[in-house]
Amino acid sequence: MTKTMHSYDAAIARELFSAAEIGAAIERLAAAIARDHRRRPLTLVGVLKGALYVAADLSRAISRLPDGPSEIYVDYICVSSYGNAARSSGEVRLLKDLSDPVGGRNVVIVEDIIDNGLTLEYLRALLGERNPARLRACVLFDKPYHRLVEVPVEYVGLVAPDEFVVGYGLDYQELFRNLPYLAQLRPEDFTDG
Ligand code: IMP
Ligand code: MG
Question: What is the torsion angle, in degrees rounded to the nearest 10, for the CA atoms of residue 146, residue 154, residue 59 and residue 8?
Fold first, then answer.
């Protein structure tokens, strides 16, 4: 990081998706997931730290819908793929496992964003070995430009531009997660690596 970022506003180059647009995308994802898990139990697995807000907002949006899942469980798993760098190292590490077993459960992995696909591939393999009844994946933002692996994503919210983005859970060096919208940083405040 070249500068200390004292002001969030000054560091933001442009807003890519407003809080309202993100809210609408969450509602669409909730409707699709509820439809596919009607009157069945559902386990949402939020991927920390980035999917903190997505999993929280999505779980509540699903529970507001009539005729959705019979029960909603929310668990979190923590992985690290980027270290402190802006580009993926390609190596995914498990930092904190789920609290509860997922054997026999209808699981939806909830991710903030998919870029090269390695994080989701790792998680699908890890949780798939535990014999869930069904395993699906949901991402709020898709950056489809640099996939290293083809990994199925059953629920996609919004397609993000080919930029490093922050906000709504996504960070740059642990900052900006708390922004309610998705943003691109000013180039002078953002150095790769
Ligand atoms: P993948 O393994 O390249 O698909 O990346 C998935 C993970 O990388 C996400 O869970 C994010 O934590 C992180 N990531 C990917 N793109 C961005 C970005 O533009 N901003 C912040 N984090 C990102
Ligand atoms: Mg993440």
Answer: 20
Catalytic residue numbers read 115
CA distance 159 to 18: 14
* Closest ligand relative to 78 C-alpha: 2
- Give 114: exposed, middle or buried? Use CB within 10 Å, 0-12, 13-18, 19+: buried
Which residues keep their CB under 5 angstroms from ion ligand 2? 50, 112
d(CA 3, CA 189): 6
48-65 tens-digit pLDDT = 999 999 999 999 999 999
Atom 19 (ligand 1): residue with closest C-alpha?
164
Kindly report whether the global pTM for this prediction surpasses the value 0.85: yes
